């Protein structure tokens, strides 16, 4: 049976963000928008679902630009592809790879092979 589990609250409300999970343990939340912040967010936050005192932590790594209405998908045990959405007033055509092992983000020149 499926059940809902409540996690720790975010520091402030965020909408139009995207989230993906790595290693069945870490949930990564990328960008979005908030009424508490001016402009789209370039933040990456993560949540360790196995932590004894779980909380959302802002990652030291940042998105290149603030993004909203974008998507993400886990593409390997260590990588999440971030793509689409809007950056300021423009549609975003760039895609990025976040690496949870090296804690880095890089722009992708091409889409990953399947």
What percent of residues are in strands? 35-45%
Sequence stretches where pLDDT stays below 50 over 5 or more residues: none
Give average pLDDT, whole number.
Answer: 89
Q: Looking at the structure, what is the overall shape?
A: globular
* Span between termini: 31 Å
Describe the structure.
There is one protein chain. Helix content is 0%, strand content 36%. The chain is mainly β and 114 residues long. It has a 4-stranded antiparallel β-sheet with strand order 1-2-3-4, with no helix packed on it. The chain has a 4-stranded antiparallel β-sheet with strand order 5-6-9-10, with no helix packed on it. The termini are far apart. The mean pLDDT is 89.
Defining key terms:
36% strand; globular; four-stranded antiparallel sheet; 10 strands; single chain; mainly beta; 114 residues
Short structural summary:
The chain has 114 residues and is mainly beta.
Describe the secondary structure blueprint for this structure.
Elements: E1 18-22, E2 26-30, E3 44-48, E4 56-58, E5 71-74, E6 79-83, E7 86-87, E8 90-91, E9 95-99, E10 104-108
Antiparallel strand pairs: 1-2, 2-3, 3-4, 5-6, 6-9, 7-8, 9-10
